[in-house]
Write a structure and sequence with these properties.
CBS-domain, 173 residues, alpha/beta, single chain, 7 helices
Length: 173
């Protein structure tokens, strides 16, 4: 169960637990009954690069640039998800450069985060990333951040399937 009430699990009409204000509800999902269902854990990037709330924004900018990524989960010492910081959030430092203010992640990170469990169906993750403006979703297991899936990860997975199946996709995305 997700511990921070500001972190929410993605929910569709008939899938996933939706956490709001500490309550949760398990719904039957699309993926039930499918054979060979691809799960988040099958394609997630791991180990995931993370930062803490007290990380300076300039360090985040360097990290994103060095690893050619567009965002990272913000976690506590126990890998509990506290938010996400993205390239867009890092742009906040542009406006404070003239004041020489040392801004940290906690001031700019997104706290309302969509998150998936490592056992969730990849089709649902794909649909979520199509339907929303964000480019990545953290993946958790037993409430701890264990990976991340980006739009790029899904595209690379589709290309891999195409090569493997000579043009036939085995998942609907």
């Amino acid at each position: 169960m997700i511990q921070n009430p500001l972190i929410r699990a993605y929910g569709t009409v008939d899938k996933h637990k939706v956490v709001k204000g500490g309550s949760s509800k398990k719904r039957q999902g699309h993926g039930q009954g499918k054979t060979n269902m691809v799960k988040a854990k099958d394609i997630m990037t791991e180990p995931v690069i993370t930062v803490r709330k007290d990380t300076p924004m300039y360090e985040v900018a360097q990290l994103l640039s060095a690893h050619d990524i567009s965002g990272v989960p913000v976690v506590d010492d126990d890998m509990n998800l506290e938010g996400v910081i993205t390239e867009k959030d890092v742009l906040d430092i542009y406006h404070v450069m003239q004041y020489k203010e040392a801004r940290t992640v906690s001031r700019s990170m997104s706290r309302d985060v969509t998150v998936f469990d490592s056992e969730d169906d990849l089709d649902d993750i794909c649909q979520c990333l199509k339907d929303n403006p964000f480019r990545r979703v953290p993946v958790t297991s037993e409430g701890k951040v264990v990976g991340i899936i980006s739009r790029r990860d899904l595209i690379l997975y589709m290309l891999k399937l195409r090569r493997k199946n000579e043009g036939a996709f085995s998942t609907a995305c």
